[in-house]
Amino acid sequence: MKYLDSNQKIEVLALQELSPEEMKLLQRAQEISKNSYSPYSHFHVGAAVLLENGEILQSSNQENVSFPSGVCAERLVLGYAGANFPDLAPKMMAVVAQRDGEESWAGVSPCGNCRQTINETENRFGKEITMLFLQPGGEVYRVHGISTLLPLKFDDLKS
Ligand code: THU
What we know:
Blueprint: E1 2-3, E2 11-13, H1 20-33, E3 43-51, E4 56-60, H2 73-84, E5 90-99, H3 112-125, E6 130-134, E7 140-144
Parallel strand pairs: 5-6
Antiparallel strand pairs: 1-2, 2-7, 3-4, 3-5, 6-7
The structure holds tetrahydrodeoxyuridine (THU).
């Protein structure tokens, strides 16, 4: 394992360094990316979330001809988790992406909207989410908690 950033917060791992639990989550994200509805971007994203009871939920990105109406895989799976399992904290999320017609996996990292949604989920349950982002060549970026991806975030109307 090495670090991507000088703060040594974004970990870079080889696939073999992942735990069996992490590997399973990544594979579930890969499987569900096949259901991506992405006729506009041709970018197939899969996200899998591990809940604290061990259950895994998954989603792909779902686009719309009115582009802003499309939803990222991360926000869909976290919305589903919150709607159906309101008492179970998400522990870990894996995200993968693949371009149309390509065998290899593309690099992926959540957009700003999704980062804010991940932040909301962490605040809701008072627990950090560990995130895995598959990169080309099989490296995996691992981040413990959204603060690393969203420093100085707005998350408290009272302060
Ligand atoms: N997308 C995701 O679903 N998650 C990400 O982390 C990056 C981007 C989607 C949005 C859009 O459907 C397509 O990928 C291209 O941006």
